[in-house]
Amino acid sequence: MMKRTFSWLLACAFASGLLIVSCSFPDEKDDTDPVETGTIQLQFDNIAGNQDLQLDSTRYMNAAGEDFTVSKLNYYISNIKLIKMDGSVFTVPQDSSYFLIREANNESQKLTIRNVLTGDYTGIEFVVGVDSTRSVADSTQRKGILDPYSGPTNEEAMYWDWNPGYIFLMLEGSSDSATTANGKYYYHIGGFGGRTSRTINNLKTIKLTFPGQKAIVTTSIVSNVLIQADILKIFNGPTQLSIKKSSGIMFSDSSKIIADNYAGMFNVKEIKIK
């Protein structure tokens, strides 16, 4: 009986000793550096050649010699990634990486990305459209800007109910060359590759290098990256688009031509440090 009592006391003493050892350095500091983050702003500026885009007022000319006006221009930007000088990539969390750019709404063209790892960035990557994973996700995962029943997506009719999916880019206007009864043209481009079988895939990943500049992100410095989108490239891209020949395009094989064209309409003009 005494041996068992002694063994038990010894075990308790040993355990107490470990506890004392483990807590005997209260002033010891963690060498792990805290993760510092900052903010970066992306400013989208829609233009037509060397002119600022104006809705319903200015007439523009495409490469086919057709004049046209623009009454609506909307497009989704998603899946944003920032590329550092050393080649590493900061991926914006998906739930914070969906935006609808609307020419009629100035505030929609200013994207504020928070909680970005500090550092020097030399490029950006993003998707024009809404990726297939999010497109087929439950409606509870498509709130905010992606809610098809409320907010801008609903107001701008950027979702097809008849062919469930988002319209990645919507361009509408008028033209003397349009063959529609009301003289309007319309291009509604979507298609994420198919829900249950393979269909049109017009998702476009855009990769841009910052021209001779870097975007600096610190806890106090905010860089504003000005990205221009030249809508003339929608007509004057790899394949020339004629309003007379194609006054209205939605979910058809011709939509790929427009998607391939607008994939080249973006460029970084400048970076301003605040």
What does this structure look like?
- The protein has 274 residues and is an alpha+beta fold.
- The chain has one domain.
- It contains 5 helices and 17 strands.
- Strands 5, 6, 7, 9, 10, 11, 12, 13, 14 and 16 form a 10-stranded mixed β-sheet that branches. Strands 1, 2, 8, 15 and 17 form a 5-stranded mixed β-sheet that branches. A two-stranded antiparallel sheet has the order 3-4.
- A hairpin with a 4-residue loop joins strand 5 (72-84) and strand 6 (89-91).
- The longest helix is centred in the N-terminal third of the chain and has 21 residues, at 2-22.
- The protein is globular.
Describe the secondary-structure layout.
Blueprint: H1 2-22, E1 37-48, E2 51-52, E3 60-61, E4 67-68, E5 72-84, E6 89-91, E7 98-102, E8 110-117, E9 119-128, H2 132-135, H3 151-155, E10 159-160, E11 165-174, E12 184-190, E13 204-209, E14 215-217, E15 223-230, H4 232-235, E16 248-249, H5 255-262, E17 266-273
